[in-house]
Amino acid sequence: MDNQTKLNRRFFMKGAGATALLGGAIGGLTLPNTASAKGMGNVSMSMAYDLNEEFNRIGAGDSKWDGIRRRWRPFNVPFPMGVADMDFRTLPHITEALMKRMGHQNWGYQPAPSDYYDNIIAWNKKRYDQDVKPGSILNCLGVLDGVLSILKTYNTDGAPVLIQTPGYSGFFGVVRNAQFSDIENPLKLVDGRWEMDYDMMASQIDENNIKVMLFCNPQNPTGNCWTADEMRRMGDICIDKGVLVVADEIHCDFVNKHVKYTPYATIGEKYAQNSFTLKSTSKSFNLAAQRVGYMFSDNQEMIDTVRRNGHQRGSLNTLGMIACNAAYKHGATYMDDMQAYIDGNCHFLEKFCAEEMKDVKYKVHEGTYLAFIDCSRVARKLGDPEGDQRVGDMLQRFFIEKAGVNLNPGENYGHNGVGYMRMNLGTTHRKLHGALNAMKAAIEAI
Ligand SMILES: Cc1ncc(COP(=O)(O)O)c(C=O)c1O
């Protein structure tokens, strides 16, 4: 057996142990009570879910843990904080619903659960007062699958697609997959918050004959929850110039306490009519691998056009739909707790940077569990990157080799991301603290 096989086998056995434990426990799975109690700091949590549990993900073959460890061998990477998923045990109701369906050992064609669309509608109505029209929901194999269909339907003259940057790296990929190019519309840093530059946006649209803009709210990676005023200013430009707004709101369930998430499609009828919204339970309940999402629009004609153009996903993966359904049906308290927990992580990171790791700058952001931290001082201390390495590649290597922490290079999110790193806070307080201590020691040793 070569080394790699041995390692894989060891990883697998660890994972198998975890699975066996889960299997054993599932019969007596206790669903949470929602007794109110205090969580960390002044954040109120239900205590129904133990988000402090150190859940072992090693050995399951996932991208964030196993993938990163494989890529960076021989470095151990005990703190993988790159890939945008979370380290927590998922909502027990999801596991329970999946186990129940697994027990029925037949996998013939199956439509969505009968209350599937009702639960999508109820979640958005209850939490965000957003009306999703029943007939307007189209299933997607994830949010990017929906974005791809929209681009292929609506960017018919092949114009570049506008992406606000720093912006989600997957946007660049999906635009490329659709055989289009992109134009970066840079956000500007104003008093520590990334703001839209409306004049620049308008002129870029004119100069490049833009027809579609990919918009993200809450925004990955800056964490902005855009205000209604900001979105109206942006939306007016788009409507005026005939640009379709594709609002990716996959991170909408992660909103820190001091802000509010406003769905783009709720800021006014004309904005709703000129936009698609895309959402999923994949971030909120860590169901990314289930490949389930949805899009909708108040503009039924646009929805029908996308469907007619080939986006036909009448039914999705059975387990994915069951997981999504259980999440929206039973997950409100879990999500509230998760928000409070992530809010706590954001504040902890801010305090740690301000008091103990002054070479990294970070101010509590608004939404998502992703922090876009300014590491430009660390980069300056490290000197010039070697060869064709980017600054972010140099920083990534440094934090992996010297601290065992994986962060994503800021350049992945656009040209103005240089010097920044994206840090995933969807993990336990303990792991976050461990990662920060390790980063601090590594920086001090430069
Ligand atoms: C803003 C944003 N959109 C879409 C995705 C990917 O979604 P999906 O896996 O459902 O295609 C991500 C994942 O990180 C994301 O951050």
What can be said about this structure in brief?
The protein is of the alpha/beta class and 446 residues long. The chain has helices spanning 3-26, 63-71, 92-103, 116-128, 143-154, 169-177, 198-208, 228-240, 269-273, 300-308, 318-330, 332-355, 376-382, 391-403, 429-444, and strands at 37-38, 44-45, 79-80, 138-140, 161-165, 182-186, 188-190, 193-195, 212-216, 244-248, 275-279, 293-296, 370-374, 405-406, 408-409, 420-424.
Write the layout of secondary structure elements.
Blueprint: H1 3-26, E1 37-38, E2 44-45, H2 63-71, E3 79-80, H3 92-103, H4 116-128, E4 138-140, H5 143-154, E5 161-165, H6 169-177, E6 182-186, E7 188-190, E8 193-195, H7 198-208, E9 212-216, H8 228-240, E10 244-248, H9 269-273, E11 275-279, E12 293-296, H10 300-308, H11 318-330, H12 332-355, E13 370-374, H13 376-382, H14 391-403, E14 405-406, E15 408-409, E16 420-424, H15 429-444
Parallel strand pairs: 3-14, 5-6, 5-9, 9-10, 10-11
Antiparallel strand pairs: 1-2, 4-12, 7-8, 11-12, 13-16, 15-16
Bound molecules: pyridoxal-5'-phosphate.
The site of pyridoxal-5'-phosphate has 15 residues, from helix 5.
